[in-house]
Amino acid sequence: MALTRIALLVSLCYVTACSDQQTAAPASEALDRILGRSMTQEPVIRDFDPAQVARGQAIFRNNCAGCHGQNAEGTPDWRKPLESGRYPPPPLNGTAHAWHHSTEELKRFILNGGPPGEGRMPGWAGILTDQEIDDVLVWIKSLWPDEVYEGWYTRIENRP
Ligand code: HEC
User: Fold this and answer.
1) Whose CA is nearest to atom 7 of ligand 1?
2) What are the tens digits of pLDDT across the range 76-130?
3) Is 31 helix (H, G, I), strand (E, B) or coil?
4) Ligand 1 atom 40 nearest Cα
5) How far is residue 84's CA from residue 117's CA, in Å, rounded to a whole number?
6) How many secondary structure helices (H) and strands (E) does the chain include?
7) Beta-carbon contacts of residue 70 (< 8 Å; ≥ 6 apart)
8) In the chain, which residue ranges form alpha helices assigned H by DSSP?
9) 114 CB less than 6 Å from ligand 1?
10) What distance lies between CA 51 and its chain's CA centroid?
11) pTM for the whole thing?
């Protein structure tokens, strides 16, 4: 998405021969029209409660970091199955595919654990409360780069 946007912007700059800021503005308006974005569309802002983010981090470090890493960086070779045929814990920091799932899907996954036989992600129902899982998810989302969060927010969480 970010790449498409840059490519479009570059080609628009080319056709409108934009070499300074004055012509760059109309080009970006044209880009917004092409992408169907309204000029008045609110930017995606993460106004997370810092206290909730801190709680989420503590819960993660106590329960999840042993597998997923202190900063949710996962296992470097998370795409490669282990000798057992099971998959190692993936990163949750926006570099793998946790962000392809809505909050509801992620929550269900954490409550129930991974599909049997696939990895060893345990289920947390009865161990963590709903509130604690919500806190962890907010901390996880706070790690995602802006463009990942924006893509998740517009295309996954609020699927048109
Ligand atoms: C014993 C190791 C282990 C622990 C502890 C663990 N996980 Fe996992 N997790 C995994 C594995 C392995 C996977 C990959 C899915 C599978 O194969 O089961 C996974 C997958 C996930 C996913 C899905 C990622 C994706 O890309 O779709 C999420 C979200 C997740 N874990 C969150 C958590 C949270 C939050 C905790 C702590 C409450 C936690 N995990 C604790 C091993 C673990």
Assistant:
1) 121
2) 999 999 998 888 999 999 999 999 999 999 999 999 998 877 778 999 999 999 9
3) helix
4) 64
5) 10
6) 7, 0
7) 61
8) 2-15, 21-34, 50-63, 65-68, 103-112, 130-143, 146-151
9) yes
10) 20
11) 0.79
